[in-house]
Every structure is written in structure tokens, then in C-alpha cells.
Fold this sequence. Notes:
Two copies of one chain form a homodimer.
Chain A: H1 4-32, H2 42-45, H3 47-65, H4 77-109, H5 117-141, H6 147-183, H7 194-218, H8 226-237, H9 254-258, H10 260-275
Helix pairs in contact in A: 1-3, 1-7, 3-4, 3-6, 3-7, 4-5, 5-6, 6-7, 8-10
Amino acid sequence: MEGFKSFLFFLVSALLLGFALVIFVLVWVLHYSDGLAWDGGNPEFNWHPVLIITGFVFIEGIAIIVYRLPWTWRCSKLLMKFIHAGLHLTATVLVIVALVAVFDFHNAKKIPNMYSLHSWVGLTIVILFVFQFVASIVVYLLPITPVSVRAAVMPIHVYSGLLLFGGVIGTCLMGITEKLIFALRNPAYSTFPPQGVFVNTLGLLIVIFGGLIMWIATRPAWKRPPEVALKDQHSFGGSSGSAPPEYSKSDKSDVELNSDAARKRNLKLDEAGQRSTM
Amino acid sequence: MEGFKSFLFFLVSALLLGFALVIFVLVWVLHYSDGLAWDGGNPEFNWHPVLIITGFVFIEGIAIIVYRLPWTWRCSKLLMKFIHAGLHLTATVLVIVALVAVFDFHNAKKIPNMYSLHSWVGLTIVILFVFQFVASIVVYLLPITPVSVRAAVMPIHVYSGLLLFGGVIGTCLMGITEKLIFALRNPAYSTFPPQGVFVNTLGLLIVIFGGLIMWIATRPAWKRPPEVALKDQHSFGGSSGSAPPEYSKSDKSDVELNSDAARKRNLKLDEAGQRSTM
């Protein structure tokens, strides 16, 4: 892997920061707030930030970069797809419980639902996320989908995954802003109370974590090698669609390399390999 | 250009949405709020969202994709650099006035500065943005910088530009959230008053605009053709560094194409061309 040391630095930073996020949100709700419970009160609300940051930020962040871990490049693409989907499924379950917690809390306290920009953007993201999850299972895990369809959808799959992840970060920032304004009354948020400073710091760390994940996910040099990716695509659903030819050093003839069309096709294959790594 | 119709669709959508954002924020402050003035009161605060959305969202969004407009591909790279930098400069001026407006408003009203997550993330982004702007002028506009340095910095330049733009979107969402909670007391934000629904809609449109800009800026097929980009890099600062060879179909020999090292180098050149388009 090109730039392995740099990759390792970013990966370790992201992992440490990811764990730090979970610890920070736990300290927030257990130390500064009213703890965790399922009682219709603030302790039930507190499950919302804990589960969102654990599921939709940390686990989802790992899900995005899991194909890029070079130690997994020996594993089959199918196994990696299951791990990728499994992490998404875990995130989805945590996010749904997080939503139930906040709606239940609102209903118990007779606070209206869905009036804030946080709730509008957040629910839109969750709906699109679940849609993308189900659609991706159909496209990338069911053997009926032609490889040509998989390749055509891949740029949208990757882009919308990263966009939704960025949207989650933005929604977290709105959620933190709302909660601190509502929760910090005496002393007020504007007087720099310890909880305000601590949770602002959590917000900054979420942004940095998002930036690290995005960096790791978009470096061309850190993609899963395309020949492995394409070999699996070919063997998994290749019979039903217009599969690209299997791509390895050994079967590329000089004639192919010398034609402009072939060069373009090879570039496209490289690109498809890159896209399919996220 | 590959996929020109699709490019046109996204570009026109982004432009229409960008204008809509400016109209929405003007309707917000002129119709729903207290208008615009420089009086230490709410009308002075109102310059903050107007200038941020106009400068840091709309103009900055255009600055990011300006190299990708195919009609500009006949222009020299140097001219495009000046346009790119000029749009950034315009954004920077508007953002600084926007910051002065909000600090002035806070000071006049004796509201503390810099306590919220919005202010922490926002000011961090502005400082990093100005740093990136000055550093990029040194690297890409001063003829003293070697081409090798320009190429090495380009991935960071592109990534941090997009990351800061994403951060601006997130910070806008926090700002809207804060302002609506503070401004909407009677009737409260939670009772779905027209201003709340209208400005939530503005928030959603900002997210969609950001998504369109990011999509346009990251499609490999819509990059400025690399041979143009590299030709300019070469002629502009090529004498002082280890410049890559000029890249055009005519000067690539079959021997080069047949060697693996040459293939990798060509891929790198393609990639550098792509990176330099944003």
C-alpha cells in the first residue's frame, strides 16, 4: 500500500477519536446530565445523543472505511460486503432506537415533534439512509443484479454514503446546539458553564472525526486493489450482465495497452475499483 | 465533455438554488425579521446570515466549481486561477463584514461572544479559510513555487476546500437553529410559526445546494482536461522544480505505455490534472 504509514496515522487517529467521542457523550449524559434510563424523562432523551454518536458517527464512520483496511484485502469481496452491510445494520438499529427515545421523550413531556431544522434534516437523512441501505442490498448483495448495473450505481452509492455521513455530522452539531440552549438555563449557555464548554468540545471532535474519515475514504492510493474487487464482481454476478473483463497484470496484452480505447477502458476499470472500495 | 447534459442539469440546478438561497435569506430578514441596518440592533445582526449565505455558501460554491465550466476551458489556467481566487476574495470580504456585524451586535446588546458551538466551529472555519486562501496564493499564484510543491499540495488544497465548504454548511445549520430558538418566542419555534417553517426550508435548500456543488466538484468526467492544466503548470513554474513531463496524446510513445512504471506515472498525471481542476 502506498503511503501506509500515513494511512496508519489517519486510521489510528480516527479510531482514537471515535472512541473519544463515545466516552465524551457518555461523560456528558452520565456526569453533566441526568444519566440514562427509559422513563420518559431527560435520562430517556439522553439515549438519543449516545446512540446517534455511537451508531451514526463512530460505527458508520468505520463502515465507510472498512474496505480500505489493507489487512482485509486478503478477505473475499463478498465477506467484506457482509461486514460493510453488518456495520450499517448495527448503525441503523442504534439510530432507530435513538429516534424512538426522542419521540417518546417529546410525547411524554408534551413537546411538539418535528418542528426544528435538526429534526427535518435528521429524519430526512435517516429515511434516505435506510433507503440507500435496502437499495444497496438489492444491488450489491443479491446475485440477480447485473454487474453493469452495479458499476453504474457505484458512484451514486459512494457519493450518497459520504453525503449522508456529512449530513449526520451537521445534524449532530444542530442537535448539540439545541440541547445546550434548552438544557443550560442556570447558569446559561452564554456564561461558559463547564457542560457547555465540554459539549462544544465534543462537537469540535465530531467535526474532526468526520474530516479524518472523509480523508481516508477519498484517497485514491488507499483503495482496495481493483483486481481483487473486479475478480469478485465477475464471479459473483458477472454471468447476467455485461461484465467488464477481469483485470490483472497477467492478462493485459501489449496490444490492449497500445490502443486508446483500451487505455480508457482500463482507466474506467481502475476507477470502478476505486469506487467499489467504499 | 462526457455527460454534458447531466452536467448542465446539475449546474443549472445549483445556480437556480444558489439564487433561491439569496432570495430566501433576504425574505427572511426583510419580511419576517427587522430588515437591514447598521444600528447595533437586530437589523445589524441580519447582515450576518445575508452575507454568510451570499458569500460563504453561494459565491464560495461557484468558486469551487468554476474550473469545471467547459466554456472556460479555452481560457488560460492563469486567468482561471485569478477568477477562482477573485471569487474566494469576494467571499472572504463578505464573511469578514458578516463577522463584524455579529460581534458589533453582541457588544451593543451585551451578549457574550464565542460561547456557542456555532461560533467555535464558524470562527475556526473562517481562520482556516483565510489561511488556506493566503497559502494557496503563495503556492499557486506566485511564480517562485516549484511545480513539484504545487502538485504535492494539490490533494490537500482540494480536500480542505471541500471540507471547509461542508463545514460552512454545517455552521449555517447551527446558526439557523440558534437564531430561530432565540428569535421565535411568541409564537414559539415549536408551534410551527411561518418564519420557523420558512427558515427551516432555507436550511434544507442550503444542504441540497451543498450536495449539488460537491457532486459537480467530484465527478472525474467533468474535470478540466489535464493536458491544458499541465501545460500551464509547466510553463508557469516548471523551471524551478521537478516538473512532470507535459502530457498530451502526441508525445506518449508506445514504449512508455508498455512499461508499468510509465503507466503508473500517466495515471498519476491524470489524477494530478483532476485534482488541479477544483
